[in-house]
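F.,

This is the one I mentioned.
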């Protein structure tokens, strides 16, 4: 059967309604039909943020000019899903099961649709995986941009025909977003309804049916064969058989008609879509490029190598920048040497990369690909952007220059302060994976899986309390990693991958494992640094028999492992006993040092 897109909108007219809805969707109260062994995912919003009621109040206070009316809809709950045929095509009846890749494709497409249509008005979206079929509850504060007032009616329609038209367009839009996944829109204007469970049981348990059953009860002394013959000869039973046959035939005709109507609807939609494309091709280039600036600035900042400030979540730091990003696609750099503001993804790329307009377009194409451009621009702008990307060379990564005069200081930091084994550090340096730059940073080289250098992670070593760390400008965080292989023979196939947060943690853990007799020495292991679930080589990891999530012992590490397990269900969590693996290595090193000192004393 064809998988269909599902979209419903519910009004939340009071803060009590908002709190009650959150209690269900955030699982703040017991949910009888939820599977407690499965974990839901917050697609939009952060875990540990204020309650939903406070978020709604804050959004209304910032974005509206006056207090809401008493009868205003304060928040709209949008329910998004697809029919079970999409999530489990082999057997839609297996409630609670789904294909992981299909589920993530649905979740990502739905998240993009929400962000493109509602922006920062969508203050939270919960992906529920603990019920029969994956679905999303998204909370949107319905603010009218023109009047600066709450208006659910303006956004979703009021009553009657206006609501039907707006909801129909909304369902068209959502179905178009899920179309590439093979999910279609239902038949427009369908009057199909769902029978309530209560009504069903009332019909089944109705008195006429019970009377029929009483009349056909076995008579005294009647054998089973005699009862069977009597039931067969009963005219009422014959009528029921004919009705059932008629019902089955009618259902087949109805299903066939629905399939034909759906095919006709898809044909009309394709015709309508082509007409829209033809109109879109005539849009001015400037209009298209203005739309391109609507890419989420948080995603662009992350790709540029910036990291969110843990204390001021709207600020992003790195590469000599302190950039504040606002909900209306504006940014401002507060760094004393870089003070400048702008709007949109192109301006942000030009500012951070110090490149021109064409260079920014080429960079966006390289990082976000065809999907990113298509999401932001219509047909003509897409063609022009591709032409620019084809003629303008993509900025290539230039690693920091090595400075051998600084190596001994960096080497001393790694081996004496961080207690990393000197022979391993020297071996990694000889392979070109670690070196020192002119700023006395330890440079950890990031490579693709086919060993193409496309990034570098820097760790400051100058001074006693140096905490500097970050990525070299131009690093591709989604296609390059610091990694090395150990154990077994160099020609052996990798059977185990251990994911770590930082290069020093990866080297520390490999050292700990090599000193443990219980560790199987013949297993060829890759230690790979991926500090975020966004930067994982997922397709490669799916081919590895054993994947271990060796992130640090903290809430951040646990959250990263939880998200990765959603993508790689077979992956196992591996925690250090202390805060991180380097601290565990150093604590284990102390008894070894005492033992060596005792041995030296005996020799003397």
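My design for it:
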């Amino acid at each position: 059967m064809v998988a269909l897109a599902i979209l419903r909108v519910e009004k939340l007219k009071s803060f009590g309604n908002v709190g009650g809805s959150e209690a269900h969707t955030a699982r703040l109260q017991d949910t009888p039909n939820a599977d407690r062994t499965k974990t839901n995912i917050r697609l939009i919003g952060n875990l540990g943020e204020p309650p939903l009621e406070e978020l709604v109040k804050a959004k209304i206070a910032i974005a509206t000019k006056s207090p809401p009316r008493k009868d205003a809809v304060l928040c709209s709950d949008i329910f998004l899903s697809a029919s079970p045929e999409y999530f489990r095509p082999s057997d839609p009846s297996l409630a609670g099961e789904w294909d992981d890749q299909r589920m993530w494709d649905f979740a990502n497409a739905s998240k993009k649709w929400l962000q493109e249509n509602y922006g920062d008005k969508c203050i939270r979206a919960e992906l529920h995986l603990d019920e029969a079929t994956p679905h999303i509850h998204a909370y949107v504060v319905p603010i009218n941009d023109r009047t600066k007032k709450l208006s659910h009616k303006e956004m979703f329609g009021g009553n009657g025909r206006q609501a039907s038209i707006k909801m129909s367009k909304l369902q068209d839009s959502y179905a178009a977003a899920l179309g590439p996944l093979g999910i279609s829109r239902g038949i427009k204007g369908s009057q199909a309804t769902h029978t309530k469970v209560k009504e069903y049981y009332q019909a089944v348990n109705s008195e006429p049916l019970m009377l029929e059953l009483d009349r056909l009860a076995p008579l005294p002394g009647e054998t089973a064969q005699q009862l069977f013959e009597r039931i067969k000869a009963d005219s009422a039973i014959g009528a029921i058989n004919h009705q059932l046959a008629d019902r089955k035939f009618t259902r087949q005709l109805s299903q066939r008609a629905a399939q034909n109507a759906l095919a006709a609807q898809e044909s009309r939609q394709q015709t309508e879509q082509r007409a829209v494309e033809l109109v879109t091709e005539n849009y001015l280039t400037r209009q298209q490029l203005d739309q391109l600036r609507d890419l989420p600035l948080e995603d662009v900042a992350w790709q540029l190598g910036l990291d969110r400030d843990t204390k001021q979540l709207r600020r992003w730091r790195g590469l000599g920048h302190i950039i504040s990003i606002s909900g209306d696609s504006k940014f401002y750099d507060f760094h004393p040497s870089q003070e400048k503001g702008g709007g949109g993804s192109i301006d942000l790329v030009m500012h951070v990369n110090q490149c021109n307009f064409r260079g920014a377009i080429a960079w966006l194409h390289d990082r976000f690909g065809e999907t990113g451009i298509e999401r932001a621009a219509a047909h003509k702008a897409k063609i022009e952007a591709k032409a620019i990307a084809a003629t303008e060379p993509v900025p290539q990564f230039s690693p920091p220059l090595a400075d051998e005069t600084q190596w001994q200081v960096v080497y001393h930091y790694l081996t004496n302060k961080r207690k990393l084994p000197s022979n391993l550090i020297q071996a990694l340096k000889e392979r070109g994976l670690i070196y020192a730059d002119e700023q006395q940073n330890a440079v950890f080289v990031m490579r693709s899986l086919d060993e193409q250098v496309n990034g570098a992670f820097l760790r400051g070593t100058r001074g006693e309390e140096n905490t500097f760390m970050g990525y070299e400008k131009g690093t591709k965080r989604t296609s390059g990693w610091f990694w090395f292989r150990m154990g077994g023979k160099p020609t052996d196939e990798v059977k185990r991958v251990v994911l770590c947060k930082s290069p020093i943690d990866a080297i520390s853990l490999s050292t700990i494992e090599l000193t443990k007799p219980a560790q199987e020495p013949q297993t060829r292991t890759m230690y790979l640094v991926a500090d975020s679930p966004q930067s994982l080589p997922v397709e490669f990891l799916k081919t590895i028999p054993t994947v271990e999530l060796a992130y640090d012992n903290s809430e951040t590490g646990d959250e990263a492992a939880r998200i990765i397990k959603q993508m790689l269900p077979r992956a196992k969590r591996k925690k250090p006993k202390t805060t991180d693996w380097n601290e565990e290595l150093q604590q284990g090193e102390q008894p070894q040092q005492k033992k060596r000192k005792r041995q030296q004393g005996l020799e003397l």
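The chain has 21 helices and 21 strands.

Talk soon.
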